[in-house]
Write a structure and sequence with these properties.
about 260 residues; 10 helices
Length: about 260
Amino acid sequence: MSGFALGPILAGSMLSQLAWHWLLAVNLPVAAIAVLGVRIGIPADAPGDLHDAPLDAPGAVLTMLMMGSTAYVLTSGVEHGWTAPLTLLAALVAVASTAGFVRRERTAEHPMLDLTLLANRTIRGAALAQLGGSVAMIGAIFALTLHFQDAYGWSPMRAGLANLPFVVTMLLATPVAEQLAARLGHRIATLVAAATLTEPGGHGLGSPARVCRHRRRNGRDDHRPANHHDHLRDRARRCDAGQPHFGRSRPQRHRAGGGH
């Protein structure tokens, strides 16, 4: 939870002063503190608790290849296009490594991830719920941070601070969710939470009317860079004209030298 609270703020403050590459160096002191904490604060395992199963090195390599190629598909798709040969090659590697990982874990004598556990309905449902919740949570914070900068023109620091109410709400809702689960059961509590998070009418942060009101209140461009996407400038013009509908035009990427 601390990562959700501090991540956008620290990243926003760093991006205000440094290039994004420096964000990769943040993990180094965190890893060093974790290693020291494990060495100092956690007692060594008893010999009787250890097993002789070898490390599933092929499974670990396939996992890294699967995650790395999947992440690169998203990066390459934005930079080079979704039908570019490099993007398609990365997607092929991602699919092949995922299939290889599943095959490896199903046939290995000592798998890194025992896929037979997913045959249990309780474990399978809990794993899917945890996966869905994590993807939704991370995706919401990521999308909101980009939305605050892209639609509102906020700085990375301000966009990071804007996520604090989201994190505080999660902290305050945790004991309420536990009480609901104890009284109503996990299924009913999940439905109540989903209904609470659903905002009818499309009047959320990203609704066209709200973004237009923000633009009219704070100026047309909201400190936009000169080379911002054409479709966003068209949105600003529509907002100034009192037309909240943004249209469906695809954005055009600006390349170095003025090309598209």
